[in-house]
Amino acid sequence: MVHLSIKKTIAIIGAGPCGLSQLLAFKQAEQDQLVELVCFERQAEWGGLWQYTALTGTDSCGEPIHSSMYRQLWSNGRAKAGDIRKFIQFRTAVRTVDFDDNTKKFHVTTEDLTNQLTKYLTFDHVIVASGHYTIPNMPDFEGISKFPGRVLHSHDYRGADEFVNKNLLIIGSSYSAEDIAMQCYKFGARSITISYRSCPMSFRWPDNVKEVPLLQKIKGRTAYFKDGTNVDNLDCIIVCTGYRHNHSYMAENLRFRTVGNLYVPPSLYKGIFWYAEPQLAYLGMQNQLYTLNMFDIQAALVRDVFLGYVTLPDDKSQKQRQKDISEWQAREQTLSLDDHEAFSNLQTDYIRDIISCCDQNTVPKFDLERSNAGMYKFFQDKRDNILTYRDQPFHSIFFPDKEAPTSETPWIKNTDDSIEGFLQSIKTV
C-alpha cells in the first residue's frame, strides 16, 4: 500500500447516496491524515434524491427542487453513524469546475446560497456525485400544451391521493410509470392508460389499467395513439419519461454527456473515471438495477485509485481506457430492452469487475450471486402478479438465513405509507 507524504485535496459534489458512499469510503484515509475532504451539497440536508420534500419547482434560494421522491417511497441510511456530516457544506452550489493541464489541478467555483458568497477553490481530484434523476426529460407531443387538465412529470408527483376518481394517462414504460400507475390504482383512480414507446410492460394489469402504443397527439381531453385508438375524458397526464444528465457546471472538456439512461455510460472508464482525465470521477451515472451496494463499490475503487492503493489494469493511455469502455458498450448493445435478467447479469458482471480492481482488504463484500438471484425473483414476482409482488419477502445478501419481514396487511390494502405504520404491521417471527 502506498502512503502519501502530501495530503490529497478532494472535492465531492453532492451529498446524496453516491456522495455519502464516497465520504464513508474516504473516512479512514481522512483519519490517517491522507486526504482533505469537502463535500458540496446544494440542499439544506443530505440524502439527495431520497430527501423527501412536498415542495416542487424551486426552493427558498431559487434553486430547482432536487428530489423526485413521493410519500409512498422512503429509505433510511447509515450516514449519521458514519460521522461524516462534518465534511459537508450545505446550501452550497457548485457553479463551475475546470482543469489546469499545467498544474494538474481542478479549479472549483462555489456559491454559499444562504449568504450569497462566492469562493474559488483548488483541488487535486473532483468526484461528481450529484446524480441524474432530477432534471426531467419532457418530450413534446402535439396538443399537450393545450390540454385543459393537469400535466406533470413524475419528478413532481408527490402522492396518489389527488388522483382519486380521475382518468389518468401515464406516458412511459419503466419503473416510475409502473409504480405510479399502481399507486394511483390502489388509491382509487377511475382509469389508467399507460402509453409506451418501444416495449409494453405486459403485466397482468387490473381491469381499469391498460397499455397502449405511443401517444401521437392530444386534442381537448382526448389522447390519440399510434395504433389508431384513443382515450376520452382525461383528467391528468403524468409523464414518466425519465431524466436528462445535466452537469452544466462542468467545463466542456470535462462534461459527461449521454443520450438515454445506459447501463454502460460513454466516456467513463470502468463506468467511473473520465476517460481523458482520470483525476475526475463520476459516480452512479449508469442505469441502475443495483444501487447503494454498487455506489459503495464504485466509491471504494475511487478511493483506492486516488490514494494510489491500486493501479487499474488498462489505465496507461486514453486509447486503452476507451477500448475498455467500447467492449462493455458492445455487450449492452446486444441485449433486448425487455430482457431484464440479461441487464441484471450485465450489471452483476460490471460490479464483479470493479471489485476485482479494488484493494481486496478493504472493498465492501456482499453476495453478488444471491443479489442477482434476488433480482430474478423480483422480476418473476412482478410477472406473476403486479399487485402482490411487493408482499413477497427477500433474503438478505449479507445474512443468508435472514428473510425480510412482511406486512400483515397486503400492499394493495395498506394505505398507511409511513415507516411507523410499516413497523407496526410487519409479521414477527
UniProtKB/TrEMBL annotation:
InterPro entries named in the record: FAD/NAD-bd_sf, Flavin_mOase, Flavin_mOase-like, FMO-like
Cofactors: FAD
Pfam family, one: FMO-like
UniProt keyword terms in alphabetical order: FAD, Flavoprotein, Monooxygenase, NADP, Oxidoreductase
EC numbers on record: 1.-.-.-
Taxonomy, superkingdom: Eukaryota
Entry coiled-coil feature ranges: none
Molecular-function GO terms, alphabetical: flavin adenine dinucleotide binding; N,N-dimethylaniline monooxygenase activity; NADP binding
Recorded family membership: Belongs to the FMO family.
Name of the protein in its database record: Flavin-containing monooxygenase
Source organism of the structure: Adineta steineri
Organismal lineage: Eukaryota, Metazoa, Spiralia, Gnathifera, Rotifera
